[in-house]
Write a structure and sequence with these properties.
With 65 residues, the chain is mostly helical. It contains 2 helices and no strands. Helix content is 20%, strand content 0%. The mean pLDDT is 81.
């Protein structure tokens, strides 16, 4: 990523919104569902859709359901 002029660093999932709000985090990588689940769309001004990853969600239920 230094080629793009960035310095990636790991941030806890729970700290992304406050990191964006405070300016400690400049950009985040997330699937669309996380943008709305954590309301990061309120603090992140721009979004790029690259379709570079694969997201697979699981639904686990009991037999009665």
């Amino acid at each position: 990523m230094p080629t793009l002029g960035t310095l990636p660093q790991l941030t806890a999932f729970s700290e992304r919104y406050t990191g964006l709000k405070s300016g400690a985090v400049g950009r985040i990588e997330n699937p669309d569902s996380n943008l709305h689940m954590q309301n990061t769309h309120e603090e992140q001004r721009y979004m790029m859709l690259s379709n570079h990853g694969h997201l697979e969600d699981n639904a686990i239920t009991n037999k009665r359901f």
